[in-house]
Design goal:
single chain; alpha/beta; Arc Repressor Mutant, subunit A; 2 domains; seven-stranded mixed beta sheet; two-stranded antiparallel sheet; 16% strand; globular
Amino acid sequence: MSITLDENRLEAFAGIIANDVGAALNAALVTIGDRLGLYRAMADGQPVSAAELAARTSTHERYIREWLNTHAASGFVTYDPAEDRYTLPLEHAFALTEENGPLAMAGIFQSACALIDNRESIEQRFRNGGGVGWHEHGDGVFCGVERVFAASYRGSLLSSWLPAVDGAVDRLQRGARVLDLGCGHGAPTILMAQAFPNSTFVGYDAHAEGIAVARERAQAAAVAERTAFDVATAQEFAGGGYDLVCFFDALHDMGDPVGAARSARRALADDGVCVVVEPYAEDRIEDNLNPIGRMYYGYSTLLCTPGALSQDGGASLGTQAGEARLREVLLAGGFSSVRRVAETPLNVVLEARP
């Protein structure tokens, strides 16, 4: 049986392949540039030659030349052929070097490359349906994810997300009891503790190494006296009467999200509120077929879905669950009302009340 191929479609697909392979290779080169300080050495926005950049960073010019050319072809730097010099635009430098800024993006390459390194473990789960626990990944995943999400929290949590939740800021200023479920390294909890000195904060996470980091970070931020981090799942923690319970990019990672929502509801004071921050997604698959959806589906396949499937419950919302599915989970967990209060291109923020 003969088949007739559309040559234009075939050539277009070859272009897609070349773009994807180039993007994957450039992602690896971004992690190298991040570690070697190449972006910081170009952060002044001034043109630089390969030799000058190599001298600034104590690296080999021949490697730097290829690194710069890949970055120029990828749109990360510009190239002036007349002068044979390269420029990192100030806006690109801000995203790649301002680690404490609201758009620190180098960590996303760190986490993505670490996930790619662990792809053989995921491949096995494709065959047997098992999960890969958070603890089974390397430090590059943990640290990279935190670097990216912490930037979002610095940029939005205090300035727009919490103010959008009715009464939350006032209660935190007076003094509230706050619970963070799936707290990871504790970045948003520590931000809130620094901003609201009259409130106390508790964070739980199943990853013991992450909890150890959270404790260190709280000590360094001088909020350890008002924060407590401990190892427990969203179903295992003890205590209640919290004014605010939070899930920061964590609910979709849980193997029993309805059970986690039920635990959050049980832990709330009668007049408390639950805040759920999740990756932004539309409810229909076809509406997520865009660059951000592509990125999130990739993370969902390599990290979030395997992580959820490794836990008791065996459910998996995935990174692109969408507001309607999240609403179903929260209502099934015992909340009576759920509303969207804020969003960014990367996140959606829901408020759930008893």
